[in-house]
Amino acid sequence: MSASSHDLQAWESFWRAAPAGAGAVFWDADPSLTAQLHLPLFDGHFDAGLPLVDLGCGNGTQTRFLAGRYRRALGVDLSAAAVEHARTDDADGVAEYRRLDAADGAAVRALHAELGDANVYLRGVLHQCTPEDRHRIVANLAVLLGARGRIFAVEPAAASKGILRALARGPAGPPGKLRAILAHGIAPGEMADSEVPELLRSQGLPVAASGRLPLTTTEYRADGTRIELPTNWVVAGAG
Question: How far apart are CA 108 and CA 101, in angstroms?
Fold first, then answer.
């Protein structure tokens, strides 16, 4: 089963309206503040000889950073408009991009048949999904990882929703890049901090490492400080 038409329409609408270029959307901070900080957390767990799939790649900023470190880097996203942004922004063609609904089991099985076992970088995807789709996506990811692949998954902590709610209800309203998200009907979902590790374990993917880091956004508070959200990260795999 694929993602709901409402979710797809919301993301397509958002990415069609999003400005081009890295840093144009709320979560798209420079890799030096995101993927580069994540890399030492998972690099020792990933087989560098396997392809890497950046699932939920958006406009591909993190995909391009990771592309030079693995044999093959593929950014995939539910939104075709996001994929077009990624291709346009990747002038040197350092990575590949395509549309993929990770809740579609047949599509993920076909990708595994093409790539073989793969590593997965998953940043801020599951909290946006329905509980049912979270189960489907993690089950499909177990197929994509196979016996040799590993996943690095990082998601906003439950406490982040209160921070976002406070920003949205501030006297001046939400900051511009957060306002753009809310305007397209996209809102952070409810997800307990324990849910991702439990989902992974339920699919035979025990957690090898975990921790907590702030998510640096591209937006600022009225006092000029950059907005950060607490996140939880895990590394998991079948082996």
Answer: 8
Pairing of strands 207-220, 52-55: unpaired
> Which value, to the nearest 10 degrees, does the dihedral of the CA atoms of residues 106, 109, 110, 115 take?
160
Task: For strands 207-220 and 226-237, give the pairing.
Answer: antiparallel
- Distance of alpha carbon 220 from alpha carbon 200, whole angstroms: 34
19: tokens are: 């400005």
How many Cβ atoms are within 10 Å of 119's Cβ, its own excluded?
A: 28
In whole angstroms, give the CA distance from residue 134 to residue 140.
10
Ramachandran angles phi, psi of 223, nearest 5°: -85, 5
Task: Kindly state the average pLDDT of the residues 139-151.
Answer: 98
Under a CB-based contact definition with an 8 Å cutoff, are residues 103 and 133 in contact?
yes
Residue 1 banded pLDDT, cuts 50, 70, 90: very low
